[in-house]
Amino acid sequence: MMMEFFNAVLTFNFLQNALAAAFLASFSCGISGTFVHINRITFITGGIAHAVLGGVGAAVFFGFSPMAGAIAVSIVFAVILGLIRFNGGQHEDTVISALWGCGMSAGIIFIYFSPGYAVNLSNYLFGNILLVSKGDLISLSILAAVVFLIMAVFYRQFAAVSFDEEYARIRGLKSSIIYIVMLIMIALTIVVLMKVVGLILVIAFLSFPSATASIFSSKIPKIMLLSFVFSFVFSLTGLGVSYSYNLPTGAAITLVAGFVYIISIMIRRYYEKLF
Amino acid sequence: MNEVISFQGVNFSYGKNKVLEDITFSIEKGDFAAIIGPNGGGKTTILKLILGLIHKEHGTLKVFGQDPAKNNLKIGYVPQFSVHDSSFPIEVEQVVMSGLLNSFSFGPFYNKEIKEKVKDALAKLGLSDRAKDRFGSLSGGLKQRTLIARAIVSQPQLLLLDEPVSSVDSSVEKDVFEMLNEFNKTMTIVIVSHDIGFISGFVNKLACVNRTLVMNDAKNVTFNDIDALYKGNKVGINHKCGI
After folding, report:
1. Considering the domain boundaries, does residue B38 fall inside one?
2. Into how many domains does chain B fold?
C-alpha cells in the first residue's frame, strides 16, 4: 500500500505539494513545538489556534486571503495571551477560555455567512494538505523562514525565560516581551500547521513530536531536531495511510503521531524498569 | 562609595498584608551580612526589593547608590531551593551560562570567553565533571551548587542568597558556608536564613526581621533578642561571633 503511495507521489503534483507542505510544517513544528512542550503551554497554544478561526472567517467574509487573516489574528491573540499570562493573575485560565471560545465562534459565524460555507469550514478545522498550491508553498516557506529566524535570534533568551523567568528578569531580560515574541513564533507555526492538520488538531501535532523527542533527548537543540524528524515522518506516514485508505489526512497524521508517542512512553517505561 | 545597600524607613505590603514596616539598615562593601527571622517575616521580600522585582511603598532604597534593578548585572542571586521543573531539558553547564546573559544576548551560541568563565565557575564549585549532567537529575546539594555557580559566574560585586542551605544536610551546609567565606574576599554577601546556626560563625552583620527590624548588629545579639524575634520557647547556643 505504501509503495503505491510513493509511486503516486512521483506522479501527482498535488502529492508533491502536500509533501513539501508537510516538510515546512514539520520544520516549524520542530522549533515551536519544543518551546510549547518545555514551557507546558499547550492551553495557551490551543487558545491561539482556535481563536485563529476568527481571523480566517473574517478574511473569507470580507474577501481577503484567509492566511493573511490567520496571521494577523494569531499575532494579535499571541500578544493578548502573553499579556494575560503576565498580568492576568488567577483569572488567566478563564480569560484564555473566553478568547478561545469567542474567537472560534466568531470564525464559524463569519464562515457561515460566506459562500461555500461547509467546504471552507471543514478545510480550516481539519486541514487541506492535498489542496496546497504553489502559491501556498511560497507563503508557508516564508512563514517557516520567519519562525527559524525568530528562534535563531532569540534562542538563548527563550531558553532562559523558559527555565527561570525570574532570574532572566534579574539579568535585565524583558521576560514579558520575550515571552510574547515566543508566542508569536508559535502563532506563525499554527498558521503553517493549519494547512496540514487543521486548527482543531494543531495542539496535538505541536505536542506529540516534541513530547516524543524529549523521551530520547534532554537537550533543547536535539529535541528540536528530533521533533522535526518525527513530525515529518508522522506526516509522511499519515499522508500515506490517508491516501491508501481514503481517510481524512489531518486526522490520520495526528493519529500516527499519537500512536508513536504512546509506544515511545511504553518503551521508555519498559527500559526504566529493566535498568 | 562603600555603601552597597541602603534601606531608610522602607515599607512594603502584599495587598492589605503589611510585610515590612519602617526597615532601616545598610550593607557596606565587603560585608558578609545575614538576614534572619521566622518564615513569613519578610526576609525574601527584602531580597526582592533589592533586586527590583517588587517596589517599595515608602522610604528610600538604594543599591550601589541608585534605584534597585539599575545595577542588577553587578548582582549574583541564588534563589530559594530550586523550584525548577526537574524534567526541563537543560544541562548544568547551560544553567551556569545563563548567569552571563543580558538583554543584548542574541543568537543561538555562546562565545569562547563565556565558555571559559563557565568552566572556571564550575571548577570553583567542584562541578567540572557534572557540566554535561541534566540539571533536573542532580541531588539537592548539587543543584544548589549549580545555582551558586550561576550567580558567581559574572563575578558580581554583590551576592544575594535566599536560604541556600535549606535543602542540604549539615555537612554540605558547612561546605557551602566555607565556600561563601572564600567568595567574601572579593564580593559583598547577603544571605537570608531562618536558621541562625551556621551563619553566626561567618557573618559580620545581622539583620533580624519579623515585619520590623528587631536589631542590626551581630555582636550585640542576645538571647532575649532572638526570643523577641521568634517568640515562644528557645534553646540558647553559644556561637563563634558571640551570639
Report:
1. yes
2. 1
Q: Is A188 on the interface with B (CB under 8 A)?
A: no
Contact: A214, B90; criterion CB under 8 Å: no
Who's near B70: CB < 8 A, 6+ residues apart? B52, B63, B64
Q: Identify the H or E element spanning B68.
A: none
Kindly provide the ipTM of the predicted complex, given to two decimals: 0.85
What is the CATH number for A192?
1.10.3470.10
SS3 B147: helix
> Exposed, middle or buried by CB within 10 Å (0-12, 13-18, 19+), for B22?
middle
By C-alpha distance, the chain B residue nearest A162 is: B88
Q: β-strand B58-63 against B212-215: which pairing, if any?
A: unpaired
φ/ψ of residue A59, rounded to 5: -65, -45
Q: Is A55 exposed, middle or buried (0-12, 13-18, 19+ CB in 10 A)?
A: buried
What lies within 8 Å, CB to CB, of B100 at 6+ separation is B110, B114, B117, B118, B153, B154
DSSP, res B42:
S
Q: Which residues of B touch A (CB under 8 A)?
A: 51, 53, 72-73, 75, 77, 79, 84-85, 87-91, 94-95, 98-99, 101-103, 105-108, 110, 134, 150
pTM for the whole structure: 0.87
Q: B84, A220: Cβ pair inside 8 Å? A: no
Q: Are A185 and A75 in contact (CB under 8 A)?
A: no
- Is the separation of the CB atoms in A40 and A216 below 8 Å? no
pLDDT per residue over A221-234, tens digit each?
999 999 999 999 99
Buried b or exposed e, range A71-87, using 16+ CB within 10 angstroms:
bbbbbbbbebbbebbee
Is B40 inside any structural domain?
Answer: yes
For B195, the domain range is 3-88+156-230
Q: Which pLDDT tens digit goes with each residue over B52-102?
A: 999 999 999 999 999 998 889 999 999 986 678 888 999 999 999 999 998
Q: What's the number of domains chain A is made of?
A: 1
**Any idea what the CATH number is for the domain that residue B84 is in?**
3.40.50.300
CA distance B140 to B62: 33
Side chain identity, residue A109: I
**Cα Rg of chain B (Å, integer):** 18
- List the strands of the sheet with B188-193, edge to edge: B75-78, B158-162, B188-193, B32-36, B205-210, B212-215
